[in-house]
């Protein structure tokens, strides 16, 4: 969504999500969104749509972080802006003759983040993971 002048005071603001769970034998994700004014709204969605929602929110969060820096008069990012996500499982796959490797990171049951990584950058990714592993294992 391109940025437009929006009157935030005219919008409802979400304070928190609560009572998150499943319904209809796992066919729906349900949650309550607590609003700033004190009201609570109930929502339901298909589990197959959760990954897209999470990815969209993370994207918007990164855009907002960049906009805050620009608004503060800082053109360069001070370090890496990111959100840490715990991975439950990971899988990698490809196809004969493909020019990419697919990485699936499962961050919750039915919530996947899928990445198509061009073969040209796989060696660099392997190198970065090797470096990070050495640091985590006590090396430098």
Low-confidence stretches: none
Gyration radius over CA: 20 Å
The topology string of helices and strands comes to: EEEHEEEH
Read across the widest sheet, the strand sequence of neighbours is 1-2-3
Fold blueprint:
Elements: E1 14-23, E2 28-35, E3 40-45, H1 50-71, E4 89-93, E5 100-108, E6 111-118, H2 122-136
Can you put this structure into words, describing what you see?
The protein has 140 residues and is an alpha+beta fold. Helix content is 26%, strand content 33%. It has two helices and six strands. It has helices at residues 50-71, 122-136, and strands at 14-23, 28-35, 40-45, 89-93, 100-108, 111-118. It has a three-stranded antiparallel β-sheet, with no helix packed on it. A three-stranded antiparallel β-sheet has the order 4-5-6. Strand 5 and strand 6 (111-118) form a beta hairpin. The radius of gyration is 20 Å and the shape is extended. The mean pLDDT is 85.
